[in-house]
Design a protein that fits this description.
The complex is a heterodimer. Chain A contains twelve helices and twelve strands. By secondary structure, chain A is α+β, with helices and mostly antiparallel strands. By secondary structure, chain B is α+β, with helices and mostly antiparallel strands. In chain B, β19 and β20 form a beta hairpin. The longest helix of chain B has 22 residues. Classes of the chains: A alpha+beta, B alpha+beta.
Chain lengths: 327, 697
């Protein structure tokens, strides 16, 4: 691990100033991913700006009925928050499906969004990886890639984003609040993470001197059902092989609103806009769900060893939609 | 006085362990201790051209960089994996090519990252196939078993059998991954070496270090007081203890080397992958006429290690015609080694899966097919069994599991998207005993001290040896103290091959008998130092037995397979064992259910992938190498049938550390077949494989 400076930020502006003035600085939340990567030599920040004690650790109800989740709210606390459990069950379920109890107690909301892929080639500095070392190549494309992307991957990178939480946020139309030298801005959750294209080293739209300050969940129609379902190799402490977050509102016998996002299929949570469009106005039948999901997944380009992800994601999505329609 | 043996005595170091005061090898902190961090090779085959340590040596805190060039030459070890930094050859990726010693762990790690190594790389081959051109039939498999055996005319009998099963199974590489990584702290004081090491047997570590460093054994003490698991991977010394001793001598400082988790798969051994072909021929009555088990596996270029997976087929069933064959290919892979039930665990997965396939072909109950093929004597050797209660285990397990209510038809039980099924498999593990020595001493305060260099790797060895002594001496358990885990105690065999309790216990029993005799002759008060008797079981414990001696058992599993996600989860797991007398009901249960849990992992979650391009194991941390989590492990029950077998040892015990993992994966795989009608023949049974199989039905 390369020696680094440590700065404990006292306020958001202070933190951003530290990030801006120190090239190679990184914000430190729970450290559950960043510190591991530093030990591996994958991340070599010059400075860690500890933001874990910033006053961003609350969940507030906003006047318009939305819910603002501070960036340092711990994953365990967010999952257990009554308003989240009540109004955004998919988010609570996604959080609880991730990592382990010990990790969730430490991991923060902002850090969860900014965690990096668990691609084994990314994590091993002795191997090529365009995300870690642009231009070095991709070890996974012809290598061990059962866990890798089937949607939106590029010649440069086939990694997936590991977060469960972010998949629920995408389906729930959450927004990510950022703060930087140019002031505050916000980005739709499903536009926050990027596809790899020719720049897989860039996971998200955040700028190096910006900080995630909050996640805002929009006001929900009373009783709007949502669900998260994840398939994995073991029952706990395993990343998704595929996952689905779904939101469904039915009015007058037809789908009035659908939010659907896939996890572990792409370099970002995959918002299934094509499927959503096909569902809108359709009768909520298994056939309609299958049709919509198939339209979405027709864009899949599986690799040698991960074709199973397509039927897996299809089955999970149809199941989630069917259950939502039945509630 | 109630007998101590058999009672559920609590483990004696339990309080120390749960309060954190039990110290492990890396937690011994001699004054001036430095830390070491290895540099693994990044090519799969080749030669180190040069090691440039200049940048590392400029790092703060770095004391030394050992390389193949500057490392003092050691005597040639019996185990070539211990010839560390002795020459520039790289036999596999991950082989250590340098070692950085520094003031702190962080300095050592940073120093290691700064070492620049250049190689002359060569083409490598790490891909095992059944028809690999380099595969050959070795004379011996691991543990000294003959590489191949043959009885009668197995091919002819198979060809003319009324019912035939001809099938293949694959078991991937598996990793031991004990919670405590391999770690050592070495301290030289003049010409004497003190090494704390995480090992399953410090007597052998001492002998190895003595040979390597050219020292008399009296000048070396190896301590393994507490060991956080080993599962075979600490059965013999590993590179950490040799490197720690080298680094300590080189720097004149005590040195701790705790191997990083990600480096373990390449340097501490693994369960080699096994490719199985099994042919079973049977009459319409279900009786086997032919049994052929052929295994292909890999070893490294460093040494020959042949996972003895075809050996169970020589013991299990009465087939008049039989052949077992091991074939091995030396590839550019890390050196495989022992992992809990080497041979039996993968071998019985294949054999017991094939027996299930045979039962399906015959349309017979899988419990009954096994009972029908129960042999009179050990099939290959013709020896009588000292005791064999497999049939009783199967019957008792079936009763407890409510097997009689099972609908034998596959895919008959459905709960929504879940398919439910049950399966059975037999278990077997040989009785191994090694000679040991022990001392028992009576002290003037009325207590007794038993000393033996046993190793407690979490099994409860301290506790059960006190129980053995208490009963032999005829004194209450509380009056017996045991000292284990130091090579300056009476020397003893390793905690491996499920042999520890039998081997050490025999010596403890013998010493206690002799002490009783001495005390009977003694008159007057005991001297301050007490009265001691010693025993050495050489010649007894290792004497050839005219009996075939094995523990047997039966595993029953119930699974639920999710047809949407492909996820398989175990609902119930039951083991019933016949393993002689059970000496401590509490710690024995813990061993059985621990083995079964590891078998559950082997069935469903654990698997390692050899990366053909880079030549290493892809899953190198505990986030990606999936040992079962608590949520995977439901109701696990272990029971036993007490056996009275006079042909074992004075306690009448058989080893119990490994049998729990034998056949468990087959029981689960058979349950998956019963649930779904799909037979997966490659472990682990992960959702990707299950879903692919289900959707192609």
């Amino acid at each position: 691990m390369r020696p680094f400076a440590y700065v404990r930020a006292t306020g958001v502006e202070d933190a951003c100033a530290a990030l801006a003035s120190r090239p190679g600085a990184r914000p430190l939340g729970g450290g559950t991913n960043l510190v591991d990567l530093m030990k591996l030599g994958v991340e070599e920040p010059t400075t860690l700006v500890d933001v874990s004690r910033l006053p961003l650790d609350t969940v507030e109800e906003l006047p318009d009925g939305s819910l603002r989740v501070g960036a340092t709210v711990r994953n365990s606390d967010l999952a257990a928050h009554p308003a989240v459990r009540d109004r955004y069950p998919a988010l609570s379920q996604a959080l609880l499906a991730g990592a382990s109890g010990q990790l969730r107690n430490v991991a923060t909301t902002g850090g969860n969004l900014l965690q990096r892929t668990r691609c084994p080639y990314f994590q091993d500095v002795s191997k090529p990886c365009n995300k870690r070392a642009p231009g070095s190549g991709c070890g996974a494309r012809e290598g061990v890639h059962r866990d890798h992307a089937v949607l939106g991957h590029s010649e440069q990178c086939i990694a997936t984003h590991p977060s469960d939480m972010a998949v629920a946020l995408a389906a729930l139309d959450a927004r990510i609040e950022l703060y930087g030298p140019a002031g505050a801005r916000d980005v739709a959750a499903d536009a926050f993470h990027r596809l790899p294209g020719d720049h897989p080293e860039r996971d998200t739209e955040i700028r190096p001197d910006e900080l995630v300050t909050a996640v805002v969940l929009p006001p929900v129609t009373a009783g709007l059902p949502s669900l998260y379902r994840k398939a994995r190799d073991r029952a706990s402490y395993a990343f998704a092989l595929a996952s689905v977050a779904g939101v469904l509102r039915i009015a007058d016998g037809v789908v009035a609103h659908a939010g659907l996002a896939f996890g572990a299929l792409a370099h970002r949570p995959w918002r299934a806009r094509t499927a959503e469009r096909a569902l809108l106005g359709a009768a909520p039948t298994p056939a309609a769900f299958e049709h919509a999901v198939d339209l979405e997944l027709s864009a899949a380009r599986p690799l040698r060893d991960n074709a199973y992800k397509v039927p897996l994601a299809r089955g999970l999505a149809v199941d989630v939609l069917t259950r939502l329609a039945g509630t | 006085m109630a007998a101590a043996l058999g009672a559920p005595a609590e483990r004696r170091e339990g309080l120390q362990k749960i309060t954190g005061s039990a110290r492990y090898a890396a937690e011994h902190v001699p004054d001036g201790r430095a830390y070491a961090w290895p540099v693994p090779a990044t090519v799969a085959r080749g030669t180190v051209r040069a090691v440039d340590a200049s940048a590392a040596l400029r790092q703060p805190g770095v004391l030394a960089v050992l390389t193949p060039e500057n490392t003092p030459r050691l005597a040639e070890p019996d185990d070539p994996t211990l010839a560390v930094l002795q020459n520039p050859r790289v036999p596999h990726r991950g082989w250590f090519v340098a070692l950085v010693v520094a003031e702190t762990l962080e300095d050592a790690r940073a120093g290691a990252a700064a070492v620049r190594v250049s190689y002359d790389a060569e083409e490598h081959d790490v891909s095992l196939t059944e028809d690999h051109p380099a595969a050959y039939a070795p004379e011996k498999a691991n543990a000294g078993y003959p590489g191949s055996t043959r009885r009668g005319d197995p091919d002819g009998a198979f060809g003319s059998a009324a019912v035939r099963v001809d099938t293949r199974y694959r078991v991937p590489p598996l990793h031991n991954h004990p919670m405590e990584p391999h770690a050592s702290t070495a301290h030289w004081d003049g010409g004497r070496l003190l090494a704390h090491t995480s090992s399953q047997g410090s007597t052998a570590v001492r002998a190895t270090l003595a040979k390597l460093f050219g020292l008399p054994e009296e000048r070396i003490v190896v301590v393994a007081e507490h060991v956080g698991g080993g599962f075979g991977s600490k059965g013999t010394p590993r590179p950490d203890v040799v490197l720690a001793a080298l680094a300590a001598r080189h720097t004149g400082r005590p040195v701790t080397l705790a191997l990083p988790r990600r480096q373990l798969p390449a340097v501490v051994g693994h369960r080699a992958p096994t490719l199985h072909r099994i042919r079973l021929g049977a009459g319409a009555d279900g009786r086997l006429t032919s049994l052929v088990h052929e295994v292909t596996t890999h070893t490294s270029r460093v040494k020959e290690f042949v996972e003895q997976a075809a050996v169970p087929a020589r013991v299990m069933y009465a087939a008049p015609h039989s052949r077992t064959v091991h074939r091995v290919a030396a590839l550019d892979v890390p050196t495989p080694s022992w992992m809990r039930a080497p041979g039996e665990a993968p071998g019985m997965y294949a054999l017991e899966s094939a027996m299930d396939e045979l039962a399906c072909e015959l349309g017979m109950d899988p419990v009954e097919v096994r009972i029908l093929n129960e042999p009179e004597t050990e099939p290959d050797s013709g020896k009588p069994f000292s005791s064999r209660h497999l049939v009783e285990c199967l019957r008792e397990g079936a009763r407890r599991f409510d097997w009689s209510r099972r609908d034998p038809r596959p895919r008959a039980r459905r709960e929504g998207a879940l398919l439910i099924g049950t399966g059975v498999a037999a278990a077997m593990y040989p009785v191994n005993i090694s000679p040991s020595t022990a001392a028992a001493r009576a002290l003037p305060d009325g207590t007794f001290l038993v000393r033996v260099n046993a190793t407690d790797i979490g099994t409860g060895a301290r506790t059960v040896l006190a129980q053995v002594a208490a009963d032999t001496l005829g004194v209450p358990l509380e009056r017996v103290r045991t000292e284990v885990g130091r090579s300056d105690l009476p020397s003893a065999s390793l905690a491996g091959g499920s042999s520890g309790t039998a081997s050490w216990g025999w010596a403890v029993h013998e010493a206690s008998v002799r002490l009783t005799d001495r005390l009977a002759e003694h008159t007057g008060p005991l001297p301050a130092e007490g009265v001691e008797a010693r025993a050495d079981t050489a010649g007894q414990a290792d004497a050839d037995s005219p009996w075939a001696r094995h523990a047997f058992g039966a595993h029953f599993a119930e699974v639920a397979v999710d047809t949407v996600s492909g996820e398989t989860r175990v609902r119930r797991l039951l083991g019933v064992y016949a393993a002689g007398h059970i000496l401590n009901a509490r710690t024995a249960r813990s061993q059985f259910i621990g083995g079964m849990t590891m078998g559950l992992g082997m069935a469903l979650t654990e698997g390692s992938t050899m990366d053909a391009a880079f030549g290493d194991f892809t899953e190198s941390d505990l986030a990606s190498y999936h040992v079962p989590a608590h949520a995977d492990v439901p109701e696990v029950e272990a029971h036993w049938i007490d056996e009275d077998d006079p042909h074992l040892n004075p306690m009448g015990s058989k080893g119990i550390g490994e049998i729990g993992i034998v056949g468990t994966a087959a029981a689960i795989g058979n349950a998956v077949h019963h649930a779904t009608g799909v037979r997966l023949r490659e472990l682990p049974l992960t959702p990707d494989r299950m879903l692919t199989a289900l959707t192609s039905v």
